[in-house]
Amino acid sequence: MPLLFILNYLLAASGLALLALTIGLYVDYFYCQSKYFNRFIQKFVWIIIPTITVGSVVISLVYSEYFGFVPCSLCWLQRIALYPQALFAVMAFKTKESVYFPLYSLALSIFGFLVAIYHYLYQMVPKEAAGGGVMPCLADGSADCGLKVIDLFGFVTFPLLSAITFAFLIILYLNLRRK
To answer: Does the pLDDT value for residue 3 go beyond 90?
Structure first.
């Protein structure tokens, strides 16, 4: 399935580029008082946030509905944190509401980020080393949280891309709250 491989590769490469941008924005936020954010990104933030959230929703639906990958329980929790943000972002874009939208979306992004990090660690730690523990997957066995739909460069998986997306959204919301 070459289409799936190309899509996986594009997502992994763009996720790593987004990670580099996210790290730069965190450094800017905490050490430069958002100087570069205000100079380069502020004017595009109302286009970036809806694009990232709606695009992430579309990608998750393409993988589950078109390619037939069944989302596991942890994937559903991440979707629960992301899907409302797409609606919030479109509404906030339309109304330019920057008081409550960043606050609610920040809470959802932090929740999604924590679930994504847990999911990533769950996938990356070998089952033998993890020992027992609580199985976070569906009881009927229809989805496996340890299944790596994307596994490129030895460490890029869907939960990592999800964590990067949530971290990027968090820094954008923090900058909006600062303003």
So the answer is: no
Tokens 């490129």 correspond to what residue?
152
Predicted TM-score (pTM) of the model is: 0.89
Q: Is 36 exposed, middle or buried (0-12, 13-18, 19+ CB in 10 A)?
A: middle
User: Quick count: other Cβ atoms within 10 Å of Cβ 132?
Assistant: 5
108 token code pair: 């959802």
Kindly indicate the confidence band of residue 97, based on its pLDDT and cuts at 50, 70 and 90: confident
Give me the domain span that covers residue 136. Answer: 2-178
| Angle at alpha carbon of residue 88, lines to 85 and 91, rounded to 5° | 150
Which region, left, alpha or beta, applies to residue 97 given φ > 0 means left and ψ of -120 to 50 means alpha? beta
Up-side HSE of residue 57: CA atoms within 13 Å toward CB? Answer: 16
How many Å apart are CA 84 and CA 72, to the nearest integer? 19
Look at the alpha carbons of 51, 171, 106, 153 in this order and tell me if their dihedral is positive or negative.
positive
Single out the residue of 105, 139, 137 nearest to residue 118, CA to CA.
137
Flag the least confident range among 9-18, 45-54, 119-128.
119-128
Number of domains forming the structure of the chain: 1
